[in-house]
Amino acid sequence: RKEGRALRRRFYDSNPAFRKFLESIQEKATSEGVLIGLDGRPLYPRSAHSAANLWIQNAASTVTKKATLLHFMFLEMNGVRHTIDFTLAVHAHDEWQLEIIEQEADTASELALQAISAAGQFYDLKVALSGETKVGQTWAETH
User: Fold this and answer.
1) Which of 70, 73, 105, 137 is deepest in the core (most CB within 10 A)?
2) What is d(CA 37, CA 61) in angstroms, rounded to the nearest whole number?
3) Are the beta carbons of 26 and 49 closer than 8 angstroms?
């Protein structure tokens, strides 16, 4: 415990903005019992100490959903047709995977990165977002 406290203290001392964020979120959770997500929805933390985790996970999920929708739109705008040329295979947490015809895989990869960046801009995030794409035949190849 003692070592853990010392590590946490050093982390907070090295990252004062994160500490301020954490304290602000915990205070809001304690005083109001509700946080507001990136998309305006109410988030109800179970406790003050879990509030930051709730907000961060919700933000990641919200941005990923927006990026997925933008990716689909960008693909369609480039003539890659949903349900004919591609379909969503997996959407989980902070990733999505497509089944797509082989000749469109590179286009889909490029457009996915553009969609991630655009999703961050949509929510006016202060940090530019990027991502990683992988093309493969199996789950193992794309992870």
Assistant:
1) 70
2) 10
3) yes
**Both structure tokens of 3:** 């070592």
d(CA 81, CA 122) in angstroms, rounded, equals 24
pTM of the model: 0.89
Can you tell me which residue has the tokens 């959770």? 29
* β strands within the chain, DSSP E: 35-36, 42-43, 86-92, 95-100
Hey, is 128 helix, strand or coil?
A: coil
All domains of the chain in start order, with CATH: 2-142 (3.30.70.370)
Amino acid 47: pLDDT: 96
Nearest CA-CA partner of 97 in 110, 86, 82, 106: 86
The CA distance from 102 to 120, in Å, is 28
